[in-house]
Amino acid sequence: MSYVLENQPYDDHEDLLKKDLLAYVDYGKLYGKRILSWPRYVIDGDDVSPISASAFPDAGCLPMNIAEGSPEKSKIEDMFGNLVIMRVNEGELRGNYFYGPDQEPHKYNSIINFSKKPGQSVVEFRSFASHNASCRLVQVVYLEGGKMDFSRKPSDPVFPYDDQAAPMAKFVMVAQVSHGKRLLYGPFEMQEAAGRSDAYEIDASQSFDRFVYAVDEASFKFNIDVERDDGMPFAQFVDVDELRELIKDPVESYDWMSASELLDACGRLAKSALPNITKSDVKALKAAIESADYVDSMISMSPMRRKRLLDMLDSRESWDEMSDERKAAAIGEIPVDKLAEYVLSDDHFARFYEKVSENDEVRRRAEAREAEATARVTAAEAKAAAAEAKAKEADAERIRAESARDEQKRQIVSEIQEELDEKRDELRQLDDDRSELENRINELREGEYAAKSAIRKVVNDFREEQAVSEHILKSVAVQELVESLGAPSGARVDGGRSGEARPEAASPAIVSDQGCMKPGDVLRRIEGAVVDRAGREFSCNEVANILICLTQGYITTFAGYPGTGKTSLARILAGALGLVQPSARRYSEVSVERGWTSYKDFVGYYNPFSQRVEPANSAAFSAFSALDSENRTDAAEHVPYLMLLDEANLSSIEHYWSPFLLACDRREGSPELSLSLGGGLSFSVPSWLRFVATVNFDHTTEELSPRFLDRSWVIMLEPQDFDFDNGDFAREDADFSSQEALNIETLQSAFGLRPGGLDVSSASRLREVVEACREAGMSVSPRSQVMMRNYVSAAQEVMDVSTAATADDPVDFAVCQKVLPRISGTEESAKPVLEAILGVGGLPRTKRHAERMLKAGEGSGFYQFFA
């Protein structure tokens, strides 16, 4: 029964559940984990119905991620191709995270797992060739090279155009304009030519008796196009049953059966009726051909084929009618072995011998040949006898040589065996000695490890006891000394509630009319202070990068070798933001010391003997105390406070800065961070506090933990012309004491998160990096992905992206400062990730640092950002 093309399309994906969907698939880039499908038709029994784009809004596309455990994307494409039979097994499709204006037009996103059994994956594919539709749908193809002559089978392969689906149906029709109409010629069966993926061998189908028909394309009622994503036709199909009806009255028809096949059919007819066919029997054979049917000849005997066979018989000649040249050619065409077989057979030899014997000349020649052959045989026998004698002599010599050789070999083998036995005994003894030494070494190592662990525990216990004792003794001694002089000491645990005044952060002079400033105005103001007044060699986009990190991140890390100006840059930023006014200083520097294990080493601790809180670092203690007082007021505007952790990795940041790691994930409306120092005293930490950490690359520092790197932006500072850390400033007279401050609300408006989404190019590039990392074995955490997305949302509006050199700066900065610092490992784990990132184009800054990391790790086999 023919397929029926329905007019009513499907417009709801839930109606398509567990149905066979004829779909076009785009596999995209090879290293990604995402493919796109465009379902075009539903094949349901004998009904074929179109699918509306509204079934998979907005563009009729269903994207899907390839599940873990599936084959590589290239293998999937080889297995299924771009034209597949697709099934959706679950009606509840997931939403697409990137769906929206200026992003992707695909509302849904799904998943396909090629390792699951049929029916278990949310979406599953089946190759078109394995579906019964491949036998019921006749594929229409277009060939390169102009018009084709369909009157005979071509000797060379044909070349279908490469912008259409490769021939994959059982039957294929070739479209070609002829007689002013577009005709479909066929049906053919096509197979890939050996060693060629773009060329095909073409032949008339045996199922259609090797006839080729021309049918007007307009005659087909069933005629469908499967379109690509751009709306262009990718594959065309007609119905095979409708084709069988139309070829009954074709525009043209051709017989592609070869002459040899027809002769075979003729032979089958003659074999049964005329085994010794002669010229007089030809008429009888012709009569048999004219009345033959399929059963007699095993082929379809159409009038056209009967005429071809009769014409071939009419061309038969008798031997006497042939010319000498024709006779020679005929004899030359007979294989010698076949001719000899014929002459020497029992049926023909006697007759042939009689004819030859009657000829005197032939007899004389035969006798001469016989005498010559006898002489040759006699000479050959003499030579054979001499050769046989020589062979016997040589054989005797060979036996003697082999005997001597075997004796010598036995002696050599015996000597070697004795030596080998001695060596084996020595080796066995050495193995026993080695095993004994290894056991002894393992015992010593275990003892060494136990001893070191015990020593380390004793030392740590001693250090803790010594530190506590020193603090207590020092506090008690100082307290007794101060009280003997009649003066107060330390900070009471009531935090000033007993009459002691707590420090307060003074309000600085701020820029007027900040609400009217645009992001570009804010950027130019700070860029002028950093570049023009302080002389730092930064581009406008580099300044914007620092400000976005500082505004959106709770802590920003300046990394680089000593002398690259990390500390001085923090001072310049504080000055440019108006935070170093003499009467209202909102910038402090904390020099991190070795051995800090808790935030109490960083800020302060409660002394139970003196019942006071002792500041561990006066700058940090004073800053947090002032910010606590400020946070208790209800000010309309808040000026940021910047705290520098200089040489932050001299101690483990994750230990002494641990309470602030939680603040990195703080969201608007969540409770503020409270820093408890003991004895009932705690500092509330406001949201306008920001940290800057400087870290060096050398063996004297602690490694930055993945937990910290997941929350911090890491800005790599390149060496410049001057050593800023040693005071050799480009502008030593840079004075920011009168620089007016910008409030935190202005900075967040200029450099904070934008409510809109990312542009399509940036979102695609970020997704490409994340997928490349995941495919190489490293997952980028959701926190880092959100931070990069928020960063790019602001950077794409603030940075200059008008040139080819800066167009990708927003994504380039984000990837370089969030993804690369997390990479640390061996050649097996880290190197593939770096190489995968290098495969993402358009990120020159990221590429430069990734190449630096690869080069630095060549010798040791260990790759890391801080190297």
UniProtKB/TrEMBL annotation:
Gene3D superfamilies: P-loop containing nucleotide triphosphate hydrolases (3.40.50.300). It comes from the Bacteria. Residues 388-411, 488-508 are annotated as: Disordered. Residues 389-411, 494-503 have a biased composition (Basic and acidic residues). This is AAA+ ATPase domain-containing protein. It comes from Slackia isoflavoniconvertens. The lineage of its organism: Bacteria, Bacillati, Actinomycetota, Coriobacteriia, Eggerthellales.
